[in-house]
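Hi everyone,

Forwarding the result from last night's run.
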Amino acid sequence: MFKITTKSAEDTKNCGRLTAEVLKPKDIIILEGELGAGKTTFVKGVLEGFSYKKMVLSPTFTLLRQYKVRGLAINHIDLYRIDSRGLRDLGLDEFVYQPHSLSFIEWGGKIIKNLDSFILIEFSFLSQNERKISFSLKGLEDKRLKDIKRKALLTASH
């Protein structure tokens, strides 16, 4: 696990943009943090890192937004409004386990126990603009965390 501090929304987005360079197809990235902590801002940065030029919106009211870029389906899923009963009916497997997909799941702590491997990114407020972002993994080789750390540290203090 490692932690960084970003000083602005632009820093958080830039962290996502650089992190995109080390993500791989079939990665599942769980995003945790309070409302407004920077989860969607981070995903916007990741999509910029993949050269996506169109508008990126939060999936809060749609549950899923999918972006096609570089032969990948980048799934941005928000489970904030879903209870445990609704999770069973959602059919997330159709999206997250596809060979050419990358999935970001906001409020993914609700399904974390069902996943064999994932990258966990936790966002917390330090001030109005500053965020602490913590990175950890489960079921992935340690080298992946080192690669992510190398990129994330380019944008923020630690």
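Helices lie at 9-19, 39-49, 84-90, 93-96, 142-152.

Cheers,
N.
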